[in-house]
């Protein structure tokens, strides 16, 4: 039996992609992807590749110990999701 799963997510988040010395703030995040989950020949849960799209705006950043800096003319960035790694 196969269980199709569709995930949608929207919102804001902060992260440290440049390392702990800086906080990056993102908003207008929209993500949507699908995958099919099933039991493999060993009885373990597995899934088909995640396929979908996402977009976000990198609105500002804050270096450690400083105030937040707004990114002028911030615009939407996008990605395509095609994860071929099977994370059981």
Give a description of the structure.
The protein is mainly β and 88 residues long. It has one domain. Helix content is 0%, strand content 66%. It has no helices and six strands. It has strands at 3-15, 22-39, 45-47, 50-63, 69-70, 76-83. Strands 1, 2, 3, 4, 5 and 6 form a six-stranded antiparallel β-sheet that branches. The relative contact order is 0.25.
Summarize the amount of helix as a percent range.
under 10%
Helix/strand order:
EEEEEE
**What is the general shape?**
elongated
Number of helices: 0
Strand composition percent: over 45%
Structural class: mainly beta
When the domains are counted, the total is 1
Distance N to C terminus: 17 Å
Report the radius of gyration as a whole number of Å.
Answer: 17 Å
Q: Uncertain regions: pLDDT < 50 for 5+ in a row?
A: none
What composes the largest sheet? 6 strands, antiparallel
Please give the number of β-strands. 6
Average of the residue pLDDT scores: 87
């Amino acid at each position: 039996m196969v269980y199709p799963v569709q995930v949608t997510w929207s919102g804001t988040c902060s992260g440290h992609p440049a390392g702990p010395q800086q906080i990056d703030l993102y908003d207008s995040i929209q993500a949507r992807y699908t995958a099919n989950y099933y039991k493999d020949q060993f009885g373990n849960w597995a899934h088909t590749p995640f396929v979908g799209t996402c977009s976000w705006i990198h609105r500002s950043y804050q270096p450690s110990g400083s105030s937040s800096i707004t990114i002028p003319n911030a615009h939407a960035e996008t990605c395509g999701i095609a994860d071929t790694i099977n994370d059981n």
